[in-house]
Amino acid sequence: MQAKVPQQGNVVIAGVGGQGVVLAGNIIADLCLSHGLDVKKAEVHGMSQRGGSVSAQVRFGPEVHNVVIEQGSLQYVLGFEWAEALRWLPLLAPDGLVFASSERILPPAAQRDRVAGGVNYPLAAFEHPRVRAVDAESLAKEAGNVKTAGVVLLGALSTELGFPVAAWRDALGRWVPKKALEANLRAFELGRAWQDTAPPKPLHSSPTQQARFRLQLEEAWCKGCSICVDVCPERIWQLDALEIARPTAPERCTGCRICEKLCPDFAIDVVREQESDLLHLAGGA
Amino acid sequence: MELIQGNEACARGALAAGLKFFGGYPISPSSEIAEILSSRLPRAGGVFVQMEDEMASLGSVIGASLGGLRAMTATSGPGFTLMQEHLGYASLAEIPCVVIDVMRVGPSTGVPTAPSQGDVMQARWGSHGDRAALALAPASVAEVYDLTVQAFNIADRLRAPVVVMFDEVIGHMREGVELVPPRPEDIWRRPDPVGPPGSGHRAYAPNEEGVAQMPRFGDGYRFHVTGLFHDERGYPSTNAELVRQTLERLERKLAPVPFWLPPEKYRLGDASFVFVAYGAVSRVAREAVDRLREEGVAAGLYRPRVLWPVADAQLREDLAGAETVVVAELNRGQWVDVVARALPRSIRIVSHGKSGGEPVTTDELLAAAADLQPRSVKSS
Amino acid sequence: MTTTAKALLRREMMPHILCPGCGHGIVMNTMLRVLARRYDNLNNVALVAGIGCSSRIVGYIDANTLHTTHGRALTFASGLKLARPELKVIVVTGDGDGLGIGGNHLIHAARRNIDLTCILFNNETYGMTGGQLAPTTVREAFTTTSPAGNTEPHFDAAALATAAGASFVGRGQAFRPDALEEVLERALDHRGFSFVEVMTDCTEYFGRKNSLGGGSDLLFTQSRSDEEVSRDLSEWPSLRPGEGWQVRETQPIGVLSEDSRPAFEESLGLPGYKRKET
Q1: Which segments of chain A belong to CATH 3.40.920.10?
Q2: Where are the alpha helices (DSSP H) in A72-216?
């Protein structure tokens, strides 16, 4: 069933640099303009080259003056990255809807000040009745191009924001590179299809079902540089008397793998021992 | 019979040998080789690329050779100097390749492009370290063709860089020649890798000739190549014993080459007065020998075709009957040191060196001979 | 993920020779994660390196690895690629190797648009030889050959490669492995000369000479202007706000330029690169 063509509304697209957030905003704005609506679009980027937050706010209606979306009036959030989507929850209208990619991108530095147990923060969001987790990454891969994840979410949005499908497709055609159009149109369809098969009720996750991670150390390779000690958001690693890294509280590991990725010596392996719902979803099952 | 130039014979010899990659940089008097190959090599299914300098040229040649192709570059003195580091690399890393050096007067830009044989010692000691060197010296257009083919054969069989060096006279000389392409069975191949890919594979394990049995890149072996001294896996090592053994092996494996390409001995049988000469100078010396023979002098010519390595014992044996040896070269005396080292002190050794860009003449050699008062045949 | 980064190491060669906290190790780690995602094994990948700390890393990777001469990796790689166009050839070079002694080869490889990926590890110094002045050292920085602070301007490697004609130019940082992964992925996807400059750190020489602290301290300098790093600047009193230091703060990362000019291999009509019918 096709929803009614909206006469006014507002949408936030949130993600990190390089995901096509600004482009997705342009597509929606273009769509509104082609339906004779007034549009205002605000963009926040600048750290985009550095993997930082990027967002685009689109407000449309017969006449729009204010570009800023006020608290409690945000209708739709497209989250290209899980945590970035959740930042907008405070602005969400009671009947607003969040389509969030279950993909998680963790900028190392952003993790540094997280308190222990911070993993509950994204899990809690699953219990929010207005958040829909979309495995956009897997669907984009299925469409043939992982970079179309944003368009998967646009597809999902199109089932709620009821512009005619043909108009959505035309707008895509105007904005995505020609050679990638085919994959993008597939991604758009897959996004729409997901909505058809998605569980109507909010997802739940038991906090007791967190992932367990085992921290494995290649002792002979560790040179005691202490990068892991300094970057671990949970402050798990310590150097022992021989200047070898040791996990002091491995049970606090959230599996962010920052230590593994920033270890110059390949000495650390973060091994997932038990899949949580969160990671299960992210894996596309 | 056709009339062709030395440089063209070189290019055609390379093609006949199966050249599939040429990376070069223009320099007189070698440029014709690149020019000819730029049109003919692509038609023969090969790749010609003009690189940005001579280091890049030989670098690209080594890279292509690792990919399994017969590869070559051509240059002259200044460029040859720039290639020295990569000659050392190819030597230690055991990468087959052929470098053509058409010699001109140096040092530095020198006299472009007057003939010279001034790069003989550079070919031996130009790169740092105790590098084992291979250098061939053709003396005619036909021999440029043949030795270019042989250079590829030797390079592949021994996995070493081979320098083919000739002076500008040979490079630009035109002669009527009948080029005889090598038969398929005349083409030597690289040693095959031993065993299948896997953790036990040793790319640098030598065969009975002391040659590494490396696969080419991309055949599943995944091995390491480095200019550092390395063990049989190719992994770097600073072990002094390993370094010593490697240097010995790299020298030993080249030792047969002067026997594969023996020197030319012209009227040497009973000669007591012997010219030692290579390249263009040997052609003049041959005429001098004939003229001296007409005068009754027991003259002969000894013409090495392999300048490096030198088989001291071979030289001693071949020149055992000589009383006077005149080493005539287009330089101030380079290969003469080799002769002097190899021969007993009882033999008089004279250097007839000439530099400046003008060729050695028969009259000059005859005048030198007159000064030395050689014995006649009859008085022996 | 097809395999794991660690599975692509030559274990018998580990641990590597890099100093504790060396940014090169992080970049190598990132590179291998990208390769592990793309390949089961590296049978058809050749890693070609010059001389220097960064160039040494190829020896630890279970691929066709070629450790060449100082500055000339691109020339060996060019020959190899033209001989075996079916191989994926990746050049690993440093700032001294690739921009100092080897600068000529970089601009010409870029100009030809040969289908290689060149990853230049920029730690702003000559690490292997003891921390000397490099063509990338920023003004005022101390090195073992600029005891009173560098007075020379530095190269912008990415801008140089762009100007020379590289059809893909990107930049990443050791500090942001995820962003770097994406840049590397796209560089490897690209057909033509792709150049990626990676900002990394020399702890033992550059870090010490400039009192920048150890591995993680140096890493955090790569994001100093962001609010992401909570540590106050005042914790690095020796970090002088000279002209040079601002370079790191303002350098953009990501894909900086990309176009689809024909690769050199196409103009030669090599297998797999046949000229497109027009």
Answers
A1: 9-197
A2: 82-86, 120-126, 136-143, 149-158, 165-175, 181-197
SS3 A224: coil
- The 3-state DSSP class for residue C267 equals helix
Residue A103 has pLDDT above 70, yes or no: yes
Find the CB nearest C15 among A230, A231, A265.
A265
Cβ-defined contact of C19 to A223 (cutoff 8 Å): yes
Domain ranges of chain C: 6-268
Contact A125, A89 (CB under 8 A): yes
Q: Which region holds residue B112: left if phi is over 0, alpha if psi is between -120 and 50, else beta?
A: beta
* Total Cβ atoms within 10 A of residue C91: 33
Fold (topology level) of A9-197: Pyruvate-ferredoxin Oxidoreductase; domain 3 (3.40.920)
> Which strand (E) or helix (H) includes residue A214?
strand A212-217
Maximum distance among all Cα pairs of chain A, rounded to whole angstroms: 70
Rg over alpha carbons for chain A, rounded to the nearest Å, is 21
* pLDDT at residue A251, rounded to an integer: 87
**C110 with C185: CB under 8 angstroms?**
no
Candidates 3.40.50.2300, 3.30.70.2740, 3.40.50.720, 3.30.70.20; CATH matching A211-282: 3.30.70.20
**Bridge partners of A213?**
A272
Taking the Cβ of residue B227 and every Cβ of chain C, the question of whether any pair is shorter than 8 Å is answered with yes
Q: What's the longest Cα–Cα distance across chain B?
A: 71
Inform me whether the C-beta atom of residue C88 falls under 8 Å from chain B C-beta atoms.
Answer: no
Which residues make Cβ contacts (< 8 Å) with residue B161, sequence separation at least 6? Answer: B87, B90, B91, B95, B96, B97, B98, B99, B134, B155
Enumerate the CATH 3.30.70.20 domain ranges in chain A, comma separated: 211-282
Is B86 in contact with B95 (CB distance < 8 Å)?
no
Length of chain A: 285
Subunits in contact with chain A (3 or more CB pairs closer than 8 Å): C
The tens digit of pLDDT for each residue in C174-225 reads 988 888 998 999 999 999 999 999 999 999 888 888 888 777 888 877 765 4
Residues from chain A that touch C254, judged by Cβ atoms under 8 A, are 17-18, 48-49
Rounded CA-CA distance A135/A149 in Å is 9
List, in sequence order, the alpha helices (H) in chain B. Answer: 6-16, 31-43, 54-66, 77-93, 120-125, 141-158, 168-172, 240-252, 257-260, 279-294, 312-318, 336-342, 362-372
**Interatomic CA distance for residues B136 and B161, integer angstroms:** 11
- Residue for token digits 């043939």? A144
Query: CB distance C43–B218 less than 8 Å?
Result: yes
CA geometry: angle at C102 spanning C99 and C105, to 5°? 105
Q: Is this model's pTM higher than 0.80 or not?
A: no
Mean per-residue pLDDT, A238-261: 91
Lowest mean pLDDT among A54-63, A94-103, A125-134, B344-353: A125-134
Q: Which residues contact B162 (CB under 8 A, 6 or more apart)?
A: B96, B97, B98, B99, B134, B135, B136, B151, B152, B154, B155
Contact of A182 with A189, CB cutoff 8 Å:
no
Domains of chain B by range and CATH? 2-186 (3.40.50.970), 262-372 (3.40.50.920)
Pick the residue of B202, B217, B237 with the most C CBs within 10 A to test the interface with C by mutation. B217
d(CA C224, CA C136): 19
User: Is the domain C6-268 a CATH 3.40.50.970 member?
Assistant: yes
Helix, strand or coil for residue B163? strand
**Tokens in use for A266?**
């390949």
Partner residue facing C14 (CB), from A107, A221, A224: A221
CA separation, residue A21 to residues A25, A43, A64, A102, B190 (Å): 6, 9, 22, 16, 56
